[in-house]
Amino acid sequence: MDAPLPLPMLMPLGDRAFLVRFGTSLSEAANRAAIAFALRLDLRTPEGVEEIDPNLVSVLVRYDPARVVPGKLAGELRLLLSGTDDAQSSPPRQHRIEVHFGGEDGPDLDSVAQVLNLTPAEFVAAHNASVLRVLTTGFAPGFVYCGFHPEALHLPRRTEIHTRVPPGSVLFAAGQTAITATPIPTGWHVIGRTDFANFVPDRDPPTRLREGDEISFVRAGS
Fold this sequence. Notes:
Elements: E1 9-13, E2 17-21, H1 28-43, E3 49-54, E4 58-63, H2 70-81, E5 94-101, H3 109-115, H4 120-129, E6 132-137, E7 144-147, E8 162-165, E9 169-173, E10 176-179, E11 184-186, E12 189-193, E13 214-219
InterPro entries: CT_C_D, Cyclophilin-like_dom_sf, PxpB
Protein name: Allophanate hydrolase subunit 1
GO molecular function, one term: ATP binding
């Protein structure tokens, strides 16, 4: 069970942004609080705010310094922090994402299963057993973090880096599954690949998944 959350911290970032932080480490409660606050801000955006960007345990609030008095905005943010989570009244969007596990698509699957004392088939079944939640998007365009797996499936990142993995790579580490949308280097374990494309530059918004969405991973063709 997560420890009680500390009071949110409102931190100025230069003269153009505030960071509202709900925890110093990743937890279910801190992530949900960040997502809920970002949704509340979307519904009641203070004048002059130009960007609302939720992260794993914080929300970046970027504003136009020509239109905003920082002290006044800080007061508005504190009022919103004391509000309720009415922004979460609608059910989360649900997605079913097919994955080609193992082989050339998932070169680390066998080693991951071995470390966890499972066969590859047992690991895939355990991995797909839980409905995960989109924790945040970022790091690279369309990159998405999904969590949380049960403690029995927790595994640290690799000690060696994959210098480049293709779009659609399904990554596994630290109790989470991630999906790439662009070619990137990674220290995560590559367990599969999906044809699901989360980043489409000419769409508005360009990403299909958003924070709070629920993800069911299934073996491709099942």
